[in-house]
Design a protein that fits this description.
By secondary structure, this protein is of the alpha/beta class. It is built from 7 helices and 13 strands. It has helices at residues 38-42, 64-70, 81-90, 108-117, 130-143, 179-185, 199-211, and strands at 8-13, 17-22, 29-30, 35-36, 49-52, 55-61, 98-102, 122-126, 149-152, 165-170, 186-196, 214-221, 246-252. The strands form 3 sheets. Strands 9-8-7-10-11-13-12 form a 7-stranded mixed β-sheet, with helices on both faces.
């Protein structure tokens, strides 16, 4: 899978303008006032600026956050950064780990997992819906730095190929129906993370985890409140995302 990570740039400007662009594209880049060519932009080193019609813009490297939040094409709800980093820590994911995931969705968390496990780790991700599988393939090809993701266009209800995985993450409608398969795939004491949007799904999952012999370590919800970037009138933004999902964490017991 060829990575385009080195060709991604972020343009920032006045009034919180932000745009992720691909230098390999031949099309012109539209700005609030005017446009520029990608050839011109490619000559500007990250951290430097340019002007169009008297308006100054800065060029930055595109990081994982900007790609996921401002560039990645989505047809599904994604795992947001506020959950993603916490999930990775709770699942003890670091370079070299072997991690399973279902479902892939648009591939946002898969991108994060790929970078977290590094070049010697592996991410095995399952998505049963073909349209989401193809979208995730495209999104991953746009940003992956390492060739460490194995994708399956199938449901884990039909079985998980891998064994002795360090961790598994579930973002599916009925996680309680696949816990037996997940347990087979995990190594002893392996980590399991589940994301669901409703409390009744949490209840169903907890009952199934107990039935399948998992140690349940936590149920939590993460909220993020951003602040207006005005030093003279520092206060929270007027609107915030009130809810994204509930997190469940558990460990496999023999």
């Amino acid at each position: 899978m060829d990575s385009k990570i080195t060709t991604k740039r972020v343009i920032i400007g006045p009034d919180n303008f932000k745009k992720v662009v691909d230098l390999s594209s031949t099309s012109k880049i539209g700005l609030p006032k005017g446009q520029i060519d990608t050839d011109f932009l490619s000559q500007i080193k990250p951290g430097n600026s340019f002007e169009v019609h008297g308006v100054k813009y800065y060029v930055l490297n595109c990081d994982t956050f900007d790609y996921i939040m401002h560039s990645l094409k989505r047809q599904t709800q994604i795992v947001y950064p506020k959950e993603g980093a916490y999930i990775a820590m709770r699942l003890d994911i670091f370079p070299g780990k072997r991690v399973g995931e279902a479902g892939t969705g648009s591939g946002a968390f898969t991108v994060y997992l790929s970078r977290a496990v590094g070049p010697y780790g592996r991410v095995y991700t399952y998505e049963q819906r073909e349209e989401f599988y193809k979208l995730a393939q495209k999104n991953l090809s746009e940003f992956l730095e390492f060739d460490n993701v194995i994708m399956y266009n199938k449901s884990i209800n039909d079985g998980i190929k891998e064994r002795d995985l360090d961790a598994f993450f579930l973002d599916v409608r009925k996680p309680w129906e696949v816990l037996e398969e997940v347990k087979k795939a995990l190594k002893p004491a392996g980590h399991l993370g589940i994301l669901v949007p409703t409390t009744n799904q949490v209840s169903e999952s907890l009952a199934a985890l107990e039935k399948n012999g998992f140690y349940i370590s936590e149920v939590s919800e993460i909220m993020l409140r951003k602040y207006k970037l005005i030093p003279q009138r520092l206060r929270p933004e007027d609107l915030m995302v009130g809810h994204t999902g509930y997190l469940i964490f558990a460990r496999k017991l023999e």
